[in-house]
Backbone:
């Protein structure tokens, strides 16, 4: 049963359209690429702003485009900070195991705050009809959301102190067993971690006086993870059966020529199964995750609806992969535009409030229209 709010009388659907073209984006992409090479990567913030502005300007919600207002110079400060942090980590990791553990702990302690800063910066610099979006999550909630990640990383880091620096020295048996236990614990906690991260993000998106909620359950994320694990186990079972068939052929006294042919056929089938599975796994995960997350994001007045179909995503992935291989990667901008169009146009917004009323509400409270882009000095973007 869906946790989405019931449809209200008078609600209407706001469509999302993407009007970009591969040819237009190719020109932006190739110029960005050349300038990144010439500047040894220092052009990255400007390249990212150009890319985001292009995709935002071509994303129309109810006929009106989004906009992106970030200052690349401010983003450069954020990237410089991240670079300094990782440079310090590399120095510490080469000093000793203890220094490496301290460096990892320091980065882990900072990462939730940087993650929250990135979301505030990205949302605060995005607007629709002149209204700035906002991210209202607190730093404390960011640390609580990433708590499972800290619980997974700390035991692994401590166990790393007992791993010898010499690769020829075998660590004690209890260390290997403990690493296996930590790994199993991490696998079991991953859906919970993913749910907490998505819940933190999707409960704190705001526009004017509206703020989203997230109604997906932890169980739904575990269900998604179990389905993916089931597909992987099915793949392993098929490969084991194929290997057993090849072994039986060898044990059955099959002639050399026939055995070689059988091995070639089995090998080809294995490659086909591997290719089909891994080619389909990404589109399957993307489709199911997008629909799960956005169909459970909204509030009493506005609800997102995602109807992305697996077969459409699979076909597009195959097409993009073939054309990128044939063009040695030059098709990538066209693939990015086609993927954005498919995923964005699969989403609609069911609104129980007139957008004009939303604008009027924001005009009465200028702070809601201004957003909080200036709230974070560094303007970090660590990947939403």
Residues:
């Amino acid at each position: 049963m869906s946790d989405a709010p019931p449809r209200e009388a008078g609600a209407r659907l706001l469509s999302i359209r993407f009007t970009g073209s591969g040819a237009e984006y190719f020109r932006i992409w190739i110029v960005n690429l050349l300038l990144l090479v010439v500047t040894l990567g220092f052009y990255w913030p400007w390249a990212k702003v150009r890319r985001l502005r292009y995709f935002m300007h071509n994303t129309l919600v109810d006929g009106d485009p989004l906009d992106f207002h970030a200052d690349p110079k401010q983003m450069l400060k954020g990237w410089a900070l991240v670079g300094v942090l990782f440079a310090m980590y590399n120095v510490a990791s080469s000093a000793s195991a203890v220094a490496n553990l301290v460096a990892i702990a320091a980065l882990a302690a900072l990462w939730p705050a940087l993650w929250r800063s990135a979301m505030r910066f990205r949302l605060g610099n995005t607007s629709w009809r002149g209204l700035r979006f906002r991210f209202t999550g607190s730093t404390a909630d960011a640390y609580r959301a990433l708590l499972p990640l800290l619980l997974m990383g700390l035991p692994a880091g401590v166990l790393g102190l007992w791993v010898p620096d010499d690769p020829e020295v075998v660590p004690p048996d209890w260390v290997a067993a403990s690493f296996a236990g930590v790994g199993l614990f991490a696998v079991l906690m991953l859906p919970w971690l993913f749910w907490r991260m998505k819940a933190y993000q999707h409960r704190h998106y705001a526009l004017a006086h509206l703020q989203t909620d997230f109604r997906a359950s932890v169980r739904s994320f575990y269900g998604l993870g179990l389905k993916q694990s089931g597909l992987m186990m099915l793949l392993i079972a098929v490969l084991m059966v194929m290997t057993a068939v090849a072994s039986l052929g060898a044990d059955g006294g099959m002639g050399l020529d026939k055995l070689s042919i059988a091995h070639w056929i089995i090998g080809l089938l294995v490659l086909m199964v591997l290719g089909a599975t891994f080619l389909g796994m990404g589109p399957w995960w993307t489709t199911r995750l997008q629909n799960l997350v956005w169909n459970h994001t909204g509030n009493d007045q506005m609800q997102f609806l995602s109807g992305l179909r697996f077969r459409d995503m699979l076909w597009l992935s195959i097409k993009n992969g073939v054309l990128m291989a044939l063009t040695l990667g030059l098709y990538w901008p066209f693939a990015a535009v086609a993927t954005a169009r498919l995923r964005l146009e699969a989403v609609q917004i069911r609104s129980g409030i007139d957008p004009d009323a939303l604008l009027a509400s924001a005009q009465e409270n200028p702070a809601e229209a201004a957003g909080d882009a200036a709230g974070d000095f560094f303007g970090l973007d660590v990947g939403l």
Notes: Confidence is low (pLDDT under 50) at residues 1-8, 366-378. The CA atoms of residues 133 and 207 lie 5 Å apart. The two ends are 29 Å apart (CA to CA).
